[in-house]
Specification:
Elements lengths: L6 E12 L2 E12 L3 E5 L6 H8 L7 E6 L2 E2 L4 H6 L1 E4 L11 H11 L4 H14 L15 H12 L6 E5 L7 H18 L2 E6 L10 E6 L2 E6 L1 H8 L4 H10 L6 H4 L1
Parallel strand pairs: 3-8, 3-9, 6-7, 7-8
Antiparallel strand pairs: 1-2, 1-4, 4-5, 9-10
Helix pairs in contact: 3-4, 5-6, 7-8
């Protein structure tokens, strides 16, 4: 990161428990503004738990999380105002139209009716959905629904976008289209993106990769960095090598 870039997200020493089970174990990383970062991990790695902590669905008890310098515990309003989120489970109202879903969400953010409609129309144009504005959500394809969710997450003009397994259930073309739209946001508007996935083919060579396994962050860097450090031939082999190695026992587990 150069001196002109800002940290969009900083996670420092974050751990989280579900009862006696440790879901996250001392996770630390940062994401610069205007970068596309991929959080890569198998199901159960801790990706969704991390997202729940960043978005304040769960309280952070161990460690610190900040969005553009605003601590999510001390200044949650300022932090969340700069954050847009697309969760793994779809949350659109199927019986409302596309533009009604967006307008309702804009109102929740305190955006006036006229401003909300203008922002909605602008985003629907950007995501090639202007001709579906009055269509009920239930009549859209899976890829179109995901694009509506991303448009909705951008209504309040956040500077950091979190996407948790956004391409689950989509066909190959829909996956590629969705990824293209999000990468253009990074390129055109310098939005920081954290894209969580278990699909290695969603990674590009220039991406910042965060490899998570069993609640621990195992590696961070570009594809070339991680391949070199693991002594493998490609990122798929590197990921397999890292996630096949048994996790060292923690002090509590060894006791």
């Amino acid at each position: 990161m150069n001196g002109t870039e800002r940290l969009a997200l900083e996670v420092t020493g974050v751990s989280h428990f579900y009862g006696e089970r440790k879901a996250l174990d001392d996770v630390s990383f940062s994401i610069a503004q205007g970068t596309f970062s991929v959080l890569l991990g198998l199901n159960g790695a801790g990706k969704s738990t991390l997202f729940s902590l960043i978005t304040r669905l769960y309280d952070t008890r161990q460690g610190r999380i900040s969005v553009f310098g605003f601590d999510i515990r001390d200044a949650p309003g300022e932090a969340l105002r700069r954050l847009g989120v697309v969760f793994q489970s779809r949350t659109l109202d199927l019986d409302l139209s596309v533009v009604q879903n967006l307008s309702y969400h804009a109102a929740l953010h305190g955006i006036g009716y006229r401003d909300g409609r203008e922002r909605a129309e602008e985003l629907l144009e950007r995501f090639d959905l202007a001709d579906r504005a009055k269509e009920k959500i239930r009549n859209l394809s899976g890829g179109q629904m995901r694009r509506v969710e991303i448009a909705r997450s951008l209504l309040h003009r956040p500077r950091l976008l979190l996407l948790d397994e956004p391409t689950i259930g989509l066909d190959i073309k829909s996956r590629a289209d969705l990824e293209k739209h999000v990468r253009l946001l990074v390129e055109d508007e310098r939005i920081g993106v954290l894209w969580a996935t278990h699909l290695i083919d969603e990674i590009s060579p220039a991406d910042e990769i965060l490899i998570m396994h069993l609640g621990r962050l195992l590696e961070k860097g570009t594809v070339a960095d991680i391949v070199a450090r693991t002594g493998t031939d490609d990122i798929r082999s590197a990921f397999t090598t890292l996630t096949s190695t048994p996790r060292p026992a923690t002090r509590t587990e060894a006791a």
